[in-house]
Design a protein that fits this description.
3 domains, about 325 residues, Rossmann fold, alpha/beta, 5-stranded parallel β-sheet
Length: about 325
Amino acid sequence: MYGWQVMERAAELERRGEPFALATVVWRQGPSSSQLGSRAIITTSGELVGWIGGACAEPSVIRHAREVIADGRPRLLLLGSPDELPSGATFGGQLPEGMTVVPISCQSEGALEVYVEPVLPVPHLIVVGRSPMAHALVDLAQVIGWRTVLKDWTEFADAEVDSRSIVVVATQGHGDEEAIERAVAARPSYLGLVASRKRGEALLGYLAERGLPAEQLDRVRVPAGLDLGKTSHVEIAVAVLAELVRLRASGEIGYGGPVVAAAASAVDPVCGMTVDAVPATLRAEHDGLTYYFCGAGCRSAFESDPASYARNETRC
């Protein structure tokens, strides 16, 4: 998959609400197999779609891309040595701020600069209720670009909720119990109830008596929103949205859970590259230990004289 096909796949992932990173080659020095403008998508599980470079470049880009998805901050990678940068690319001998250097020892790879940016899904907010506050919250969330839907409690179903959803129940006495009961089972990223603390405690106590697990009910935030004291309907909506924005910015709620944990890693004893220590990676056994390699050339060099390389192996 190349060129615009990569961007079409990116659009498909965005429509499905799945986070990913987009990697773009912004500079190259031969004999790199990549081309200026080459793009690839990297998913949270480490799948790469597109073309960003050969056997040494690809695993490094994947590793950093997954970190970019996790922290939500883009980064510029230099795959190679700073000495390979073109004249004038440094500032007084210093690398540009924010550049991450990834040493590449495989000579066939040349050097690359790759810009890796996160593409995180727009929050999915479901507001349950038909009060003025519920309508105001929907309007405000749409202003900041959130994907928002308003449902009466009679229309609301847990099938509409997934782990990426943010649910605010603002029914204010009209079907509160039913709405909360439907929502908690779906385990949304956030579930808040717009009610007084006293009303909220009574409602959760009633649901506990009906047999809802405490583990589920403990996820309900009540009262939802920042405490602004006595406020109007619109101001309550502002308080709720402010809390949601703060929680999302801090990473407490997000797109549906943590990024898949990165694979264990090891250092190629021949070239010094960091590689994934997984079954799919080229490897060799020596003296009861497993060594992992970035490519066939390094493994062949190791197998020809393992004793001289074994001491270089370092686990990460």
